[in-house]
Design a protein that fits this description.
The protein has 114 residues and is mainly β. It contains no helices and 11 strands. Strands 2, 4, 5, 6, 9, 10 and 11 form a 7-stranded mixed β-sheet that branches. It has a 4-stranded antiparallel β-sheet with strand order 1-3-8-7, with no helix packed on it. The radius of gyration is 13 Å and the shape is globular.
Amino acid sequence: VQLVESGGGLVQPGGSLRLSCAASGFTFSSYVMRWFRQAPGKGRELVAAINSAGSSTNYADSMKGRFTISRDNAKNTVYLQMNNLKPEDTAVYYCNALRVADYWGQGTQVTVSS
């Protein structure tokens, strides 16, 4: 089982990034996929989730209207489009696959700074 995040980096406030998480080793289309983040000195928090079919999503309140989660089951990939980024969005972003078991990626760093 492998989840590999990519797309992180340094961006200025107000900018955008698109994170990707490529999955392998399990039946991706059967799993709820989630993005979490962990800022320095803070706990891990849920950012967004999408159901297995991609027909239902939910977001943490502070991300609503700025972040969009999507998935492509043909490519075994989940995405997180992040717009209007703020310095407080700086964190390591993790991909998570949830069904009976759950799996985690290694994370990708997002830094929002001028």
